[in-house]
């Protein structure tokens, strides 16, 4: 029996490592997409959909914008999103601060390649700044997964006064969650804990990176912020799960940020920090949300 069991275990491990059809990866992510929040969020907030330039945006409690705005860039490997966890996180934080939340539903690959998503975010921020929504009160930029690459490109461009972001006030805080900071995936093969391997997730991300980048080299600093100059950025709260494929990316990014000079708060939680199916329950996630809430309150001046 032990031989049969061992053979079954080895067969299972082999099957998990076999490449799947490309369509499987993209279909799985797209099926998880939730363009509108679920019923619980709809009950707690006034929800408004607005097209800004070519970008679909969804407001939570826009009437609270005078108290501050949390602008959220969802994850989804540039192929999909937002997910239930994006809505749950934004709802919880906007509720806690009694401020407005804005989810930017930027366009994704394969129909829209770089720099479309970045230009979408820039256009939204430029319009908000022009209308006074980002000027009358402080604002926070939050992001998860692929959204982190966009967020770090945006704050660098605000710092440098580039293009439509030249006159935009910088965010009072950037909240990075499980950031995808290196589209070359140089670090995702490292299993620092010795407990995890991610063959299917690496394949998905490899396909996603190629699909989104198009002809742009993957080491371009607007795609892979680990290759960018990260000095003179606003305060940053960075978090990751110890079972996340981006664990090493987050640790490398933390060191780079600390060396570059921005104020950095860092938190690792056990398990995964994933938004695909919603916010993970548990004490550690609760502590992280509380820590983020305090950082956002300090940034918005509501503490």
From TrEMBL:
Coiled coil: none annotated. InterPro entries: AB_hydrolase_3 (IPR013094), AB_hydrolase_fold (IPR029058), GDXG_lipolytic_enzyme (IPR050300). It comes from the Bacteria. Signal peptide: none annotated. Keywords: Hydrolase. The keyword Methyltransferase does not apply. Residues 70-271 form the Alpha/beta hydrolase fold-3 domain. This is Alpha/beta hydrolase fold domain-containing protein.
């Amino acid at each position: 029996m032990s031989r049969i069991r061992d053979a079954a275990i080895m067969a299972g491990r082999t099957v998990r490592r076999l490449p799947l059809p490309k369509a499987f990866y993209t279909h799985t992510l797209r099926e998880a997409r939730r363009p509108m929040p679920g019923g619980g969020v709809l009950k707690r907030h006034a929800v408004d959909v607005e097209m800004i330039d070519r970008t679909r945006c969804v407001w939570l409690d826009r009437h609270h914008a005078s108290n501050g705005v949390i602008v959220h860039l969802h994850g989804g490997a540039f192929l999909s999103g937002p997910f239930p966890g994006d809505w749950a996180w934004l709802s919880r934080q906007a509720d806690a601060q009694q401020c407005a939340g804005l989810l930017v539903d930027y366009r994704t690959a394969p129909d829209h390649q770089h720099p479309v998503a970045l230009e979408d975010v820039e256009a939204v921020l430029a319009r908000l700044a022009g209308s006074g929504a980002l000027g009358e009160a402080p604002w926070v930029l939050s992001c998860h997964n692929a959204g982190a690459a966009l967020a770090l490109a945006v704050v660098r461009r605000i710092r440098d006064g580039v293009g439509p972001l030249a006159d935009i006030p910088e965010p009072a805080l950037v909240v990075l969650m499980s950031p995808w900071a290196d589209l070359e995936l140089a670090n995702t093969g490292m299993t620092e804990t010795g407990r995890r391997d991610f063959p299917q997730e690496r394949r998905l991300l490899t396909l996603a990176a190629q699909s989104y980048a198009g002809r742009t080299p993957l080491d371009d600093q607007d795609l892979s912020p680990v290759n960018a100059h990260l000095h003179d950025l606003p305060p940053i709260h960075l978090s990751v799960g110890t079972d996340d494929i981006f664990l090493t990316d987050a640790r490398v990014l933390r060191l780079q940020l600390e060396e570059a000079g921005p104020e950095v708060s860092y938190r690792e939680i056990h398990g995964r920090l994933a938004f695909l199916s919603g916010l993970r329950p548990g004490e550690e996630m609760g502590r992280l949300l509380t820590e983020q809430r305090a950082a956002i309150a300090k940034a918005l001046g509501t503490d």
